Amino acid sequence: MPLVKMTELFPKKSDCTYAIGAFNVSDMEMAWGAIQAAEELNAPLILQIAEGRLRYSPLDLLGPVMIAAAKKCKMPTAVHLDHGGTIEAIKLALELGFTSVMFDGSKYPLDENIRKTREVVELAHSKGAAVEAEIGRVGGAEGDYKAVDIAVTSVDEAVRFAKESGIDAMAVAIGTAHGNYKETPKLRIDRLKEIFDATDTPLVLHGGTGLTEDDFKNCYHNGIKKINIATASYDSSANKIKEIAKSKSDAKYFDFSDAIVQGTMENVKKHMKIFGVENKVK
Ligand code: 13P
Prior knowledge:
The protein has ten helices and eight strands. By secondary structure, the chain is α/β, with parallel strands linked by helices. The protein is globular, with a radius of gyration of 18 Å. 1,3-dihydroxyacetonephosphate binds near residues 230 and 232.
């Protein structure tokens, strides 16, 4: 299957019956687990890595592995840079052939976020790639950054941001946070509905780990088109490794690397089923 752009995978605005899963990966094993999950379920896939994790997986090493995994996958697969914060990482991702990048300017005042995002849009579009950007602020931290508080996206700001930046997908803050939740999140589905009604830009949910099946369904029934999952795959893989270390005293390196593949595959399959994306490849 060719490497595709994530925008080609999003359900139409009027189709709120499913959302595409975007799964963060940090090595070949995780990418391989994710593509096997997509193939088993006949589902489209987005593979992504966040800039905040590049300390563990340099983009010039992992990026080509992600592209190769997407090309190997029999399902349409997009490769995306998640939470790009520097122009260097964004440029490198585009040079490597990533089909989309996220620019996260959520820490900047609105005008500055729009201006910086528009620069990324011009660059990415000139290379045929799509851009996701964030308005409002999702809580927690993706990778090695300092955790931040949630700032729920305002409808007026979302409308202005989408129109003036020219982005292809918009990450909105509706009460979710990156990482494992310390308390039950209070989702602002009311706000999601208002934003969905006010703009045609596809909406993205960050901080998927720890939400319930009902939460996910509520989000895509009300307009979310892409859902990001990171921590749950890391935890699923780490738990598999711990199980093997505990139960098999003569475990070898390849038992552990296989645990990462299996741990990621199980988690990706579980979420794809909840997202309703199974059998969406015709
Ligand atoms: P989680 O780590 O909470 O799944 O968040 C993933 C995410 O939003 C990546 O950008």
